[in-house]
Amino acid sequence: MKIKKIKKRTHMMYVLVAIGFFMQSSCSDDPEPTPVIEPETPGVEMPDAPVKVTTLVQNFQASDGLSVDDEGSIYASDYGDFMGTEVLKVNPNTAAIEVAVNNLSAPTGNTIDASGTIFVVNNVRRVREGSDELQGDVLRVLDDGTRTVIATLPGFPAGITLDEDGNAYVSNFFFPGVHKITPDGEVTVFAQDNRLFGGVGIDFDDSGNLFVGNFSTGAILKISPDSTIEILATIPTVREGVVIGYLTYFDATIYATAPGEHVIYSVSMSGEVKILAGTGDKESKDGPLLDASFNTPNGITADPNKKVLYVTAGGDNDGGALRVISLD
What we know:
This protein is mainly beta. The protein is built from one helix and 25 strands. The strands form six sheets. A five-stranded antiparallel β-sheet has the order 22-1-25-24-23, with no helix packed on it. Strands 2-3-4-5 form a four-stranded antiparallel β-sheet, with no helix packed on it. The two termini are 27 Å apart.
């Protein structure tokens, strides 16, 4: 099943579009609402399960990376158009919110290990005043609050995930590769390929394959344990340069947000692309999968115990929201 190929663009265009989206999305004009893609559209099929979409928290300020700990608590980064300073912790049962990490500078991706240690990508900045080169930190925050910068990476580090051995893997807007950081702080380039330039969403499957979503092109790249890279699928482009936000893996499926299209996609391990939820209207409305709507969905993570997806939406006219998609 073929999906329309995306035209090639220069790396700098990807960066300008991606950074411009995150810095100016709250004040930029948005295109007309996208109609629902019908099943006969090449490369895209619609699901038939009427799973419910609900809102856990309305007026939710943290609209970037998401993760879930072993107890089911949700962690959301408040990027805030380069103005955010916190990672928030949300109780999924009561919707109570507390600050998990503060005094940050525009945090993006985050993840948490079994011991309660939080890893967050933070403080993307110019290498020096007047320079076009960027760099950003990966911060480790222990359960007692002790924090350490375990790596400073070139480019615009964005998403982060962990493997079973505690190694961190970081995607990058402004570097054509994925960095690996060991628990001892050793930094290497795990995989490098021009198609990884613009990477945001990142997660492992059960077999140790690493998946990276390209924000600008819509490509979902599969990186095998030996660093072999192939394209699993490509999400259709509706808004040029703003295709995939974050992604997550659960039960042999990749789930990805489409902030420019205002929908959520599912992608099978064979590369079959479907719209999981959303009408394409830029609004926040609960309901069955295909009746619900999302306002600029971005962060996404799965709770495998509850069999739900959590999605952050940073809408500029409804204050943002933390949404829940039931997969039962």
